[in-house]
Request: fold
Amino acid sequence: MPKNVTVFRRTILIAIMFVILFSGHTHLGLAEAPVTILKFDGTERTVTTEISDPHAVFKEAGIAVGQADRIEEKTSGRGKVLVLKRAVPVIVVRGDSQQKFFTNKDTVGEALKELNIRFNKKRVYPAADTPVTANVEIHILNKGDTLSSVEADSEIPVKYIDDENIPYGQEQLVEQGKAGKVKVVKKSVVSTGKAPKEVEIAREVLADPKYSVIRRGIGMSVETPEGRKKYSRIITAEASAYTVHCGTGTGLTSIGLVAARGIVAVDPRVIPYYTKMYIPGYGIAIAGDTGGAIRGNRVDLFMDSYEEAINWGRRNVEVYILEE
Reply:
């Protein structure tokens, strides 16, 4: 075999061995970091990190952990799981006094123990094994205080459906609702030298109510910044704008009103003086002025400034003549 062929084969073999060895070392040196699953604020995020301290892991991930928050460490088939339990406010009530605290505990009893508050399980409301929720009121009964409860009907909720085919102000019942059931919990507080005072401290839903469905008439009405208003007719008019510096400049309208935003110059033969109206883009107004050029379906809207009047220019508008 020629010498140069042998050398070539040896070179190829050495190269292959080098690649294998190099690849193996590279694989060992660049092993991926362990997977950690972060659960917080109702969401979940997966990160890879060599950090073991849970607080440092959240910090590296850019997730703030409050001083009163708690981190639980668990394991799953996917790796380590860090669960962030946010501290929430609770209100501890004794007699007429109350204090607000923050806790990251899961139950009422655990929260009271964390706060070093002694209690008798039979004299705590809600019960010691009740899950903690934000702003829950935890009532600790003093000597002489009592709890009582009674079932009652809840109000029937209403769902309205606006209907333009029904005159404004009229309603049509579509479906009759039904009251729910609630348990009303009351506490009787005894104070020295005072008569016992009974206060409601909770309402527990026993049965959900059923909505009444009502069609609400909005026919011949328009939505305004002051709420929905009933109108008698709509006039399409050309609208211009003026300010106190226009005309005589006295600051008074032709019928003696002080010129201000909401005063509209009209042709009183079309829109009588003192008529209330709504003009989209301008607002609620009253017919309180006139002018030589205001004839027929023309209106002139008072503006607070000359610039506002210029920006308005001339445009066609719908004038809703209000009934009130």
Observations:
- Confidence is low (pLDDT under 50) at residues 24-30.
- The helical segments are 3-29, 54-60, 108-114, 306-312.
- The longest helix spans residues 3-29.
- The first strand starts at residue 35 and ends at 40.
